[in-house]
Design brief:
CATH class: Mainly Beta
Shape: elongated
CATH topology: Porin
Biased composition (Basic and acidic residues): 161-171
Bound molecules: calcium ion
Distance between the termini: 36 Å
Protein name: Outer membrane protein beta-barrel domain-containing protein
Structural class: mainly beta
Biased composition (Acidic residues): 148-160
Strand content: over 45%
Number of helices: 3
Organism: Roseimaritima multifibrata
Number of domains: 1
CATH architecture: Beta Barrel
Strand order of the largest sheet: 1-2-3-4-5-7-8-9
Region (Disordered): 143-171
Order of helices and strands: HHHEEEEEEEEE
């Protein structure tokens, strides 16, 4: 899997920026007022079960909302190309176990691109580290490949004009897709979350255009 270098750097920097110290604390989420109130006294020194509980408890996320950025890569079903892109959006927790999301996203590849509005919902455990499942939709503009063997133009710049199989890229009117999603959340602190996700995009352009999209998300929440 190809991960753009900028994303790899971000993944290294984010835990540092959000405070590595909290990674080792059993009361990791004291930056959130709800969590802080619940665990203000903290478990006794020898109370390992109590310490474990406060180190994994993420029930405080109910009611949180905030912006996120994400970056990812998309792999076309037939392995013909990969696209890289980014999303900027907002995610909110209606309860500690479900969240909803809306974002603008854009992806570009060698000859293709798409951009539009992404929405989705996720179900997860109220824990500091949790897998999740979700469903989402994407609606926007995209490119499509068209036959270009009789337009008198060397569309792919390979020195041959209108050779057999030559195609050109055209903006398409509209692309809609729905996707199931799986992933993993990790909360470095009570208000910041790292997410790894993988989606299977089922598009209106037919099964040949179905894609895997996988990426990382960094979110900052508040009440
Ligand atoms: Ca050509
Ligand atoms: Ca041509």
């Amino acid at each position: 899997m190809v991960i753009p270098r900028s994303i790899a750097v971000l993944l290294v920097l984010i835990p540092v920026m959000t405070g590595c110290g909290s990674l080792l604390k059993s009361r990791y989420a004291m930056d959130d007022p709800v969590y802080a109130e619940k665990y203000q006294d903290g478990a006794e020194k020898g109370d390992l079960a109590g310490k474990l509980k406060q180190s994994v408890d993420a029930r405080h996320v109910s009611g949180l909302g905030g912006p996120f950025v994400s970056g990812g890569a998309q792999f076309r079903g037939k392995g013909e190309s990969a696209l890289a892109g980014a999303e900027v959006g907002y995610e909110s927790y209606g309860s500690s176990w479900h969240s909803s999301r809306i974002s603008l996203s854009g992806f570009v590849g060698h000859e293709d691109w798409f951009a539009g509005l992404d929405t989705g919902v996720r179900l997860q455990l109220p824990a500091r580290v949790t897998p999740f499942v979700g469903v989402g939709t994407f609606n926007g503009l995209s490119t499509t490949r068209e036959d270009a063997t009789d337009d008198g133009v060397d569309n792919d710049d390979d020195g041959r004009t209108d050779e057999r199989g030559e195609t050109k890229t055209e903006p398409d009117a509209w692309l809609s897709s729905v996707y199931p999603e799986v992933g993993l959340h990790f909360w470095p602190t009570g208000k910041s979350r790292l997410t790894f996700y993988s989606r299977y995009l089922v598009t209106t352009e037919g099964r040949d255009s179905d894609d895997w999209l996988t990426g990382f998300q960094y979110s900052v929440f508040s009440r």
